[in-house]
Amino acid sequence: MIDVSLTISPVKNRDGKIIGFSKIAHDITDKKQEEQRKHDFIAIASHELKTPLTSVRSYVQLALAKAKNCSDEFTENVLSRADTQMTRMITMIHDF
Fold it and tell me: Which of 46, 55, 75, 78 has its CA at 20 to 30 Å from residue 31's CA atom?
């Protein structure tokens, strides 16, 4: 089995009547395999990037909860910004 790109065009006589079809098939197996390799690489890279970000985000959220309990506004503000940026990064990786 191979992947092909198929183009079919009508063949007309002088009066414009269709008398047949012209078919061209291109073997695109290599292109499909390359696309699959790219997809696999992106899936692995995405997973490898999200895993540590998720762990770090959990620690930031725990520290943020502790900062809120201690009424430490500076630490709370910094950790809130870090959490927001990590959420953006995780979303960007997911969309990728």
Answer: 46
